[in-house]
Fold this sequence. Notes:
Strand content: 15-25%
Bound molecules: alpha-D-galactopyranose
Shape: elongated
Distance between the termini: 44 Å
Radius of gyration: 22 Å
Amino acid sequence: MSLTIPMTRTLLGMAAGLALSAGPLTAQAQSDEDVKMGFIVKKPEQAWFINEQEAATALGEEKGFEVVRLSGEDGQEVLSAIDNLNSQGAEGFVICPPDVRLGPAIMNRAKQYGMKVVTVDDRFLNSDGEPMEDVPHLGMSGYKIGEQVGNAIAEEMDNRGWDPDEVAALRITNYELPTAKERTDGATAALLESGFKKDNIFDAPQQNTDTSSAFSAASPVFSKRGDFEHWVIYALNEESVLGGVRASEQYGLDPDQVIGVGINGSGAAFAEFSRETPTGFYGTVAVSSTMHGRQSADNLYQWITEGEKPKANTETAGKLMTRENWEDVREELGL
Ligand code: GLA
C-alpha cells in the first residue's frame, strides 16, 4: 500500500510565509487557514453527536480552522474516514469511536499519516483492556453522573410515595463500553444507598447505545416481571432510557407507573419534554455536548498549532433536567 504523507506544518508555514509577502493576509489568518481537522462520531444521527460536531465547526469558524465532519459507525468506516482526512490534508482528528477496542488500529492508521488524535466521550482501550493513556481524552465523569441519575430517581420515588420494596428497576446495560458501565454502576450505587432492593434490579443488556437496541433489550424484561406495578429505568444515555420507556408503554404501563432518568440532555430529551402530556421519561442529567465539541476541538487545535499536548483525561459534570426546568438548563449549558 502506498501512503501519501501530508505536507508538514513547517512546510505549510513556509508556504504561508511566502504568500504573506505577496498578499494582504495577516500572519495569524494565514497560519490558521492551514489547519484542518476531522471530527468523527459513532452515531452521526444522534442529537448529542450532531451538536458536538456543530459546536466544533462553529469554534473553527471563530478561530479560523476547518472541521471535516465524518461518520464512523464501524471500524471500516473509521479507517476510510482517516484515509479521506489524510487526502484532504487534515493534521488530526477528534473521535468518538464505534468500539473502544478499535483504539490500537485507529492509532496505527493515524500514526502512518502523522496525525494527532484526541478522543471524546468514549475512551480507547488497549489490547489489555486498559484506557490508552497516551491519547488525550475528554468525557463525562460517568460514575458521578450515574449517581446523579440514581439520586434523581430515588427522590422522585419519594415524591410519588412509592414503597421501595415494591419497585422494580430496569437497568439497561452496556458492559462493553467502560463509560456506560461506570454510569449504570453509579446509578445503582446511589439507588441502593437510598434503600432500593438489590433483588428488584433487572438487567437488559443492549447491543448498542441507541433507542432501538434498548427497546429490544427492555421488552422481555417487562413481560417476565409483570408482578411489579412501579418501575424505574436507567441506562448510559437518554436515547436508551427512551427505548425502555417506549417498551414500558407498549407493555401497557402508564406514565405515572414509570420513572425513567437518562443522561445527555440533547434533542431526544427536548422532544420528549415538549410533548403535551408527561411520559415515563421523568428527567435526564444534562451534560454540555456543546462544550464537549468545542473543548475537544480546541484541545486538538492547540496541540496542532502550539505543540501543547492536551491533558490525558478531562472529566465533565452534569445537571438534572426535567419537564419543569429543561428550557433553563438548556440555556445555561448553551445547548
Ligand atoms: C456515549 C454515549 C452517548 C453520550 C456520550 C457522552 O458515547 O453513547 O450517547 O452519552 O457517551 O459522553
